[in-house]
Amino acid sequence: MRKNRSPKVMGMVLAGGTVPGLEVLSKQRTKAAVPFGGAYRIIDFALTNLAYADVTEVGVLTQHRPESLMNHLGNGHPWGMIGLNRCLRRLPPFTGASDSRWYRGNADAVAQNLDFIASRDPEHVLVVSGDHVYRMDYTEVLERHVESGAAVTLAVLPVPKLTYPSRFGLATVEEGWVTSYREKPEAPCGGLVCLSVYLFRKDALFRVLQASNSRAVVDFGRDVLPDLVAQKRVAAYVFGGPWLYLGDLQSYWQAHMDLLGPATKLVLDRWNILTNLDDRSVSVSPPPFVGSEGQLDNSMIGPGCIVEGEVHDSVLFPGCRVHPGAIVRSSVLMHGTVVGPRSRLHTVITDKDVTIGEGVTAGVPAEPADWETASRLPTTMGKNCHIPSGIQIGAGAIFYPGVGERELTDLWIPPHTTLQPKVEDRWLQD
To answer: Is the pTM value of this prediction over 0.85?
Structure first.
């Protein structure tokens, strides 16, 4: 018997934004390109979901500092997006025949690329954010969407109470249909959080976005969904898995600590996340090495790492080195970070290629007995920071990319200090 043909779906990944709370990590790269989990970038989760759902015609909408993201995407090979009837196309803002502007919002970004969608001729268009960490079976969303006949289906997540609802769109669902929608309400409340996964029928998507000729259609949550909800044309797919919105440094740090916890639902090896292993030549890096004096406890370390000191409850991305006598606790060290001899780090995030000199302390409490109860506000060092030997850095300090000896002229940096480089290196990418 002939199998029913699967409807053709193409993907549009929103990957052009940044968030103020992560600026030290996303100042020189879009949030979607921020490294996560010891081996990945945040966009890998959305691209993996698309690949496993066999959505292999994908546009990636870029805007803010796109260079590192574009390098990571390459030709789309890691996600199976090259070949006949497959593509991964980067879609930055462009100058048209009669108009030129930056993307003003997620709906406007898609609207400016309707020609690309039309050229692939899909039946449905799956618009997803590249900024979130989760593993979702998009084929289940499609099944719900086709079964309902809705103009658009939203993926939503039940949340008992939100302290910061202004970050999210909230939906009310009855019998599988969205009956009300509030875009980023101010007051703390509970409800179903919209996960920025929108599956549109192509004809419905074109109809609402082409309405921008007569009115401003900038954002899906504000300008598109309310009318469709009022017309009872928005279905809901209720997601039951873990989903992370990394909106600030504390949540970014906590997510990595959760990866190390015994009860976490974030089990990345079971998710089989796909990534570009040619990024920084990770695919040809040697295995990690722990020296005879090295200690490693409840930690993740990537290829090319060398541990000659102590590493406890931490995540080390590929190519990190911890010198003899150094102690790293509850920290996240990105690619190429070097921790000098006898330095001590507690609750620290380092971006790529950070060099920490000899005898540096960062985020370390005055008394060893206080280590377990020390501040959980991470001390953060942006890409290519160089910390001179002997510097003591209080908990929660933030150093922007390129901070070094010019800015660190005192041996004591008080807690929660923020330092910008005196001369910004605008070429720091990746």
So the answer is: yes
